[in-house]
Amino acid sequence: MIARAVVGERLAAGAEITGPALSVFWHLGELGEGQEWRVTFRTAAAVRDRLAGRIQELHPWDSPEVTATPVAWCLDTYAEWVERTTGAPE
C-alpha cells in the first residue's frame, strides 16, 4: 500500500519489495520477533525528504526504518528516468 501510494504520488520512480524476512528486535523493553518486508524506493535527492515524510505518515509504526544509500554511479539514462519520473527539477 505504501509503495503504491508514493509511486503514484511521484515521490518515487519505482519500488522493489522483498520479503518476508524474519526480524528479531527489542521493542518496549522486550525481545520481539516477526516478519518484515524491505521496500527499496528509487527516488531523487530533491524529493527524498518528502518521500520520507510520506512514508512516516502512511506507516503503522511510530518509528519505521527509513534509511538511504546514495548511488555512486548509474547509467545517465537511468538517473534521468528517476529525475523525470519524480518530477524533481533538473
Automatic annotation (TrEMBL):
InterPro entries xref list: Ion_tolerance_CutA, N-reg_PII-like_a/b, N-reg_PII/ATP_PRibTrfase_C
Classification of source organism: Bacteria, Bacillati, Actinomycetota, Actinomycetes, Mycobacteriales
Gene encoding the protein: cutA_1
Entry similarity comment: Belongs to the CutA family.
PANTHER family xrefs: DIVALENT CATION TOLERANCE CUTA-RELATED (PTHR23419), FI09726P (PTHR23419:SF8)
Database matches in Pfam families: CutA1
Organism: Nocardia africana
GO biological process terms on file: response to metal ion
Protein name, entry field: Divalent-cation tolerance protein CutA
MF GO annotations: copper ion binding
